[in-house]
TrEMBL record:
This is Alcohol oxidase. Gene3D superfamilies: FAD/NAD(P)-binding domain (3.50.50.60), Glucose Oxidase, domain 3 (3.30.560.10). It comes from the Eukaryota. It comes from Lentinula boryana. Keywords: FAD, Flavoprotein, Glycoprotein, Oxidoreductase, Signal. Its cofactor is FAD. PROSITE patterns: GMC_OXRED_1, GMC_OXRED_2. InterPro entries: FAD/NAD-bd_sf, GMC_OxRdtase, GMC_OxRdtase_N, GMC_OxRtase_C. PANTHER family: GLUCOSE-METHANOL-CHOLINE GMC OXIDOREDUCTASE, GLUCOSE-METHANOL-CHOLINE OXIDOREDUCTASE N-TERMINAL DOMAIN-CONTAINING PROTEIN. The keyword DNA-binding does not apply. SUPFAM superfamilies: FAD-linked reductases, C-terminal domain (SSF54373), FAD/NAD(P)-binding domain (SSF51905).
Length: 624
């Protein structure tokens, strides 16, 4: 830790903006060379002791807490009844890795290969992602015989790392409905996949979590990459430092040079000027904000806020938000912000089932705290355990699927720009693929208590099955809404603006209904709570139109926004090239989730770490 004055007088080689998931991984790797000096500017603070962050069973409880969450919200979303949707983002050392739900999974090989197919040589499963995903992790299989012998869990050493910074292990507590969920999926013809780490993310699986099994606490960017290296004299982190702008110079006929970073700490303005590069790792919402504040973005957006355009690039935006663009702008406006959607399907379950909600009872909490502290076991050492990754064939009957496929194939908005065209070619190939998941189910052993939900009734016990749309076709935008660097960005994901996204969610709801009627779930006495039965006590389902209405009322984000500074060829609307450098600049890169050009079929944190590890090799090679 240091003062702002001393930070600014340090002769840095690199300054990284954002001490989050990617930023700290990159900082740790770059500072391995003692001759290289790395500075990190983080707007939030270093929170050392916060059980809501470190204790697995308390995950989600820090959401909305301004100490660790920017707690953004979207603008009104027209296709979902004009609702504004909560969009949390981690604030502080560790960023969103300190706030997330700990799911530590990998997508399918094809998802990673799609990054290369979109114009990024070598960014594929074999050459990049598998290598760096292994490099990031220390994978620890369960040792507790009861868990280790669970027929649903397995792993292949060939695909997992043993020496990485992030610990990937297994929940120490499995809820009463875990096995029912897995076996009901199996009985519905969804095969068990004992390890999704091998590039096959389909079927029913038990996923690892980002938890250090030695302490049974969250393993995140701060604990994995920063704390172990905090004594390096060449790695300097300044917290409470809100970056307001990157200073750019424009030598005639040459690429733009990033010469400094302006930031505010304790209401005072400072500037730091590194020797080599500036790297933006402020995340999917704030990386585009800082680029735009610095004069990199769409001219019409910047002009609206009185900012001079230095580089006209499609930062944080999407064609369909601006239907009246000139032809010239249309060809540039292909960047692809998008997000995974989710619906919590809540059931009332038997009163004697233990769920995370049991911790609301002070007596249970005290007993579980003792168990956690003394044996690292029990509810507080537990997490989400069970997943189902479903392809279209499990979600639709063949006639309905053909209709939907036809609708998607004929949708000209999906081919309106070069990047959308390339993306939709890939997405259309995956639609009928029995080995490619379109919907993820995730069993949450508690009443998922954010979003517009009905009252949780005291004395009743619930579990939630999250239905997640993995390959949304809707595209949105993130822009500054003011030239004030302290105002929140305008987030407009345009959820359900493509009607096919709604149809996939409806298919997910209907699938979960069938799942609950399949053994062994069927005999567990679970009652539909939300969505409700058609009329109380009938066990009769809502009609498709009623489910559509319910989806519009309930849909929220599962918080995986990407693509606001997409890595793609410039002519396709990319913001960074495949070395993560911002087009037209000499020494400005982006390293975070915003560069991922298309949503992958899983939760993104492992991929974000892998991107940061690869970025450090790219940056080291550029110096050599
Ligand atoms: C509630 C929630 C649950 C999630 N659950 C999972 C999960 O279970 N599994 C999974 O794989 N993924 C999950 N994710 C997503 C995943 O955690 C993120 O995609 C990933 O951590 C993003 O990393 P990043 O490096 O892009 O950004 P971040 O980790 O958010 O880092 C950005 C950093 O930049 C800082 N910053 C921003 N603006 C400024 C500024 N102006 N000046 C200085 N610093 C700034 C921020 O404070 C932050 O520390 C979840 C996300 C959320 C919000």
């Amino acid at each position: 830790m240091t003062s702002a004055e001393s930070f600014c007088s340090t002769s840095f080689d690199y300054v990284i903006i954002g001490g989050g998931t990617a930023g700290l991984a990159l900082a740790a790797r770059l500072s391995e060379d003692p001759n290289i000096v790395v500075g990190v500017l983080e707007a939030g603070e270093h929170i050392h002791e916060m059980p809501e962050v470190s204790v697995p069973g308390m995950m989600g409880q820090a959401l909305g807490n301004p100490k660790v969450d920017w707690a953004f919200s979207t603008v009104e979303q027209p296709a979902v009844l004009n609702r504004k949707i909560f969009s949390p983002r981690g604030k502080g050392v560790g960023g969103t890795s300190a706030l997330n739900f700990l799911v530590y999974q990998r997508a399918s090989e094809e998802d990673y290969n799609a990054v290369e197919a979109l114009g990024n040589p070598k960014w594929n499963w074999k050459d990049t992602f598998l290598k760096y995903l292994m490099q990031v992790e220390t994978y620890v299989p369960p040792t507790d015989p009861e868990i280790a012998n669970d027929p649903h869990i397995g792993y292949t050493t060939d695909y997992h790392g043993t020496n990485g910074a992030v610990k990937a292990s297994f929940s120490a507590w499995f809820n009463d409905h875990h096995a029912k969920f897995m076996d009901a999926l199996l009985n519905m013809g969804v095969p068990i996949n004992r390890d999704t780490g091998n590039g096959r993310n389909i079927g029913a699986s038990v996923g690892p979590i980002s938890v250090d099994p030695a302490t049974m606490t969250r393993s995140h960017a701060a604990t994995a990459y920063y704390t172990p290296n905090a004594d390096r004299t060449n790695l300097i982190l300044l917290t409470g430092a809100h970056v307001t702008k990157i200073l750019l110079e424009t030598p005639p006929g040459e690429p733009v040079v990033a010469t400094g970073v302006e930031f505010s700490k304790d209401s005072q303005k400072f500037t730091v000027r590194p020797k080599l590069e500036i790297i933006l790792s402020a995340g999917t919402f704030q990386t585009p904000q800082i680029l735009e504040l610095s004069g990199i973005g769409r001219t019409d957006v910047l002009t609206q806020h009185g900012i001079n355009t230095i580089l006209d690039l499609p930062v944080g935006e999407n064609l369909r938000k601006y239907p009246l663009l000139s032809r010239n702008s249309v060809t540039k406006s292909n960047s692809v912000p998008e997000d995974h959607l989710t619906l919590p399907f809540i059931h009332e379950i038997s009163k004697d089932s233990a769920t995370f909600d049991s911790l609301r009872d002070p007596a249970v909490l005290e007993q579980q705290l003792t168990l956690y502290k003394t044996e690292k076991k029990g509810l507080l050492a537990g997490s989400i355990t069970a997943y189902g990754y479903l392809p279209s064939e499990k979600l639709f009957d063949s006639e309905d699927f053909l209709d939907l496929q036809k609708q998607i194939l004929q949708d000209t908005t999906l081919t309106a720009t070069p990047s959308l065209n390339k993306q939709s070619a890939i997405l259309k190939k995956w639609l009928p693929d029995p080995n490619h998941a379109q919907i993820e189910l995730l069993q949450f052993p508690f009443f998922l208590s954010f979003g517009p939900l009905p009252e949780r009734q005291e004395g009743k016990v619930y579990h939630s099955i999250m239905i997640i749309g993995l390959h949304p076709l809707s595209r949105g935008s993130v822009h500054i809404k003011s030239a004030d660097p302290f105002s929140s960005p305008e987030i407009d994901p345009r959820y359900f603006s493509n009607p096919a996204d709604l149809e996939y969610m409806v298919s997910g709801v209907k699938f979960v209904r069938k799942l609950m009627r399949t053994e062994p779930y069927a005999s567990a006495g679970c009652k539909m709570y939300d969505p409700p039965e058609k009329s109380a006590g009938t066990n009769e389902d809502l009609s498709d139109d009623e489910i559509r209405d319910w989806c519009r009322t309930r849909v929220i984000s599962i918080f995986h926004p990407i693509g606001t500074a997409a890595m793609m060829p410039k002519d396709d609307g990319g913001v960074v090239d495949s070395s993560l450098k911002v087009y037209g600049t000499k020494n400005l890169r982006v390293v975070d989730a915003s560069i991922i050009p298309m949503e992958m079929s899983t939760h993104p944190q492992a991929a974000v770490y892998a991107i940061a590890e690869k970025a450090s090799d790219i940056i080291k090679a550029a110096r050599a």
